[in-house]
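Justification of computing resources. Each target in the renewal requires a structure prediction run like the one illustrated here; the chain below, 237 residues long, is used simply to show the kind of job we budget for.
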Amino acid sequence: MKTRLSNEYKVCLAENIASIRQRMERAGEKGKGQDVTLLCATKTVPADVINYVIREHGITDIGENRVQELLEKYDELELEGVNLHFIGSLQTNKVKYIIDKVCMIHSLDSLRLAREIDRQAKKIGKVMDVLVEVNIGEEENKGGIMPSELETFLDEISAFDSIRVRGLMTIAPNCERNEDYYKYFEKTYQFFIDILPKKIHNIYSPILSMGMSDSFETAIGCGSNLIRLGTVIFGQR
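Resulting structure tokens:
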């Protein structure tokens, strides 16, 4: 998973990250007063590129989508002071491979998966931080808990003592215009402030993860405090 970093690409990365941080700051002026974490979504990004943005641009959070790719890169990554997240769909039979490597799983979307995360975390004496994925657009071909089932699901997973719910994550349906994302993000924010604290008490630094390369400014305006950006940083992959 190595590549040769050209000077041209280094300049491109620097410009992209600087631009994103400026856009985050401007979007935050319309937000809800929250601090926002930039998570670099690093699917297909070679380890040396990831290490470069960590070293040179102060990136502290990275997210991998695929278990196999995470495992292939893991030993090459310079992770001191860096949070490695798993942000993709996760099969129960692969939980054991990442449970000791990631700080948080962003895609908890079934009781079966919760049970396996809890089981594997217990084996290594860990309490695994998770985000519950909400299928806010109620799309049949997408993972996540349906909005109508969220309260019940939060009740059910509260029984697992090796899982710590830190918040919610959603991936909105594809929208033609940036402002079209608004209704999905606002609805998720309402769940975040109304339902989540009612069901999960004393959450440490609650996380609302929503917003990607094409929607992060709208998401920040709606209260997101963690955005997952890939293409807008690293280019088309």
